[in-house]
Amino acid sequence: MGKPARERTLKDSEAMAQARNLRVSPQKLNLVAGLIRGKKVASALADLEFSKKRIAKDVRKCLESAIANAENNHNLDVDDLIVADAHVGKSMVIKRFVPRGRGRVGRILRAFSNITIVVRQVEAAASE
């Protein structure tokens, strides 16, 4: 009596993971996402492991989730995966106020953002 299952938006050779409401501005998160776009997942994980950015730990967790989804839900080979897409979106913004001199107020905007990582299986090139 439930709703019919929604059609899959990704191809059969792709898997996805999302991390929502990360406490970082989308601009800063996009710098880390650009670091891994188009790379093989092993290389991307290594780059995130040694990145100095604070948010790299959360992006790495999301990438590992996408890899696990590919392996367990879609039976894809982990060794042939690349990061096909890593896009960043805005989430909520918390507004805070700080007292300034002469009775004024300073506004602080604390931005949150979302990241979506899509991994794709590519066939290993025959190197003979």
TrEMBL record:
Coiled coil: none annotated. One of its GO terms (biological process) is translation. CDD domains: Ribosomal_L22. Pfam families: Ribosomal_L22 (PF00237). One of its GO terms (molecular function) is structural constituent of ribosome. It comes from the Bacteria. SUPFAM superfamilies: Ribosomal protein L22. Keywords: Ribonucleoprotein, Ribosomal protein, RNA-binding, rRNA-binding. GO terms for cellular component: cytosolic large ribosomal subunit. Belongs to the universal ribosomal protein uL22 family. The globular domain of the protein is located near the polypeptide exit tunnel on the outside of the subunit, while an extended beta-hairpin is found that lines the wall of the exit tunnel in the center of the 70S ribosome. Part of the 50S ribosomal subunit. HAMAP family: Ribosomal_uL22_B (MF_01331_B). This is Large ribosomal subunit protein uL22. It comes from Blastochloris viridis. The gene is rplV.
